Amino acid sequence: MITALADSVRRLTVDHLHVVGDIYDRGPYPDKIIDRLISMPSVDVQWGNHDIIWMATLAGSPLAMMNVIRISSRYGNLDILEDSYGINLRPLIEYAERYYEPSPAFAPRLTEGEYLSQEECDLLNKLQQATAILQFKLESQLIARRPDFHLEERDVLHFINYDEKRISLKGKQYDLQEFQAPTVDPVQPEQLSAEEEILLKKLLKNFKASQKLKKHIDFLLEKGSMYLSYNGNLLIHGCLPLHENGDFKCFRLEGEAYSGRELLDLFEDHVRKSLAHPDVQEDLSTDLLWYLWVGESSSLFGKEAMTTFERYYISDKATHVEKKNPYYRLREEPETICRILKNFGMDEKGHIINGHTPVKEKKGEEPIKAGGKLIVIDGGFSKPYQKETGIAGYTLLYNSYGMQLAAHEPFKTIKAAVEDGSDIVSVKRLVDRVEERTCVKDTNIGQELLKTIDDLEYLFENYEKY
């Protein structure tokens, strides 16, 4: 009864919920989160890069699938795949056990208090290595067939001297640490073996057979988008790619140039096309989902390059750096925000709301930027990020009076939650207060209601004609 009462109160107080991306890969129970979101009466999602890579897997991308399994192995979250979604990974486990030995660089990253046996850790280690090499092979194939993506510098398997175990990156030579590539042909490193071809087909079939996963991806597709204009505010998970001077960064595809809102519309169109035809592989739309994960002009990634290979195999940490798009510097300037809002056909009095990059509040970083015109709401809901942020996430509250940003305290123990209420302590700060209260008619829902009223009045006045 108490639970039902609490749920009723929540439904009455929360009219609509926005989720600004990255439901997946941020903790052990994304499936439970999506089940809860499905039960919400009014909700939308702005896709994050981690959501997209799961969507790409169900769209038929073996490359995305390898990435999903690799990340789940890295953070000890295979239960999501095997138990929550019922995906049989046995063929991959047998393959990894056959070809790989544990390597320190691939030790799983566990959260504080989480324990796995040495045998379990070794298995996750081997799975990471196996999926990483398969990922690099498949990525090499994609790079070759998609010159428009300009990912040539990430074709890492072709830059390796396999005899010396050294790699050449941007004119510099680096030794490879603990590099195992037992299934790579140095002459054709991108080539899959017959065994690997069969393995990938089996795994992809197992993913597609999960009805629960399909239900969740269908929900993300139905309720999600690359961005959302809502009540005068622009919600984008990551960024809008910019040049250093603030101009919108162009992405050229098949002879056409796209930037700003047009670029995000292009990406969304291809996301929907890809998932509409999951049996078609290596098509442009499905490959673009991978680009959204790693591409320099991706609004979801927002960096120059993803250095997965370097982090695993090169000890020089300078190679691990992923340079951010200038957007993350320029979003501190109100002029930048106004220019972006104008590009989306929105009033410059609005706000941009981002997720993607955790705000390191304990180091003094502010989530409210550009004089209150941009708010970053990624504050570390996921436990692994709470050491960086110092808090347990943000919730942005919006009502007729304006906006407030609530910063939440980390959950410690059930006892502390019951006795001290430590899990419900929130520090609120005012983001924006309107001079006149916003009326329902001025909101997105209000506009829909007005349109419905107009339609009903028209039908009432003309019912005899019909």
Q: Could you characterize what this model shows?
A:
Strands 7-8-11-13-12 form a 5-stranded mixed β-sheet, with helices on one face. The chain has a 3-stranded parallel β-sheet with strand order 1-2-6. Strands 3-4-5 form a 3-stranded antiparallel β-sheet, with no helix packed on it. A hairpin with a 2-residue loop joins β4 and β5. The chain is 42% helix and 14% strand. It has 466 residues and is of the alpha/beta class. It has 2 domains: 301 residues, no CATH class; 111 residues, no CATH class. The mean pLDDT is 92. Its EC number is 3.1.3.11. InterPro entries: FBPtase_class3 (IPR009164), Metallo-depent_PP-like (IPR029052). This is Fructose-1,6-bisphosphatase. GO terms for molecular function: fructose 1,6-bisphosphate 1-phosphatase activity.
Largest sheet: 5 strands, mixed
Helix content: 40-55%
Task: Output the number of helix runs.
Answer: 17
Cα-based radius of gyration, to the nearest Å: 24 Å
Mean pLDDT: 92
Strand order of the main beta sheet, please? 7-8-11-13-12
Distance between the termini: 48 Å
Q: How many E-type strands? A: 16
Report strand %: 5-15%
What's the shape?
A: globular
Low-confidence residue ranges: none
Instruction: Assign the structural class, choosing from mainly alpha, mainly beta, alpha/beta, alpha+beta, or little secondary structure.
Output: alpha/beta
How many structural units, i.e. domains?
A: 2
InterPro entries: FBPtase_class3, Metallo-depent_PP-like
Protein name: Fructose-1,6-bisphosphatase
Organism: Lactococcus garvieae TRF1
GO molecular function: fructose 1,6-bisphosphate 1-phosphatase activity
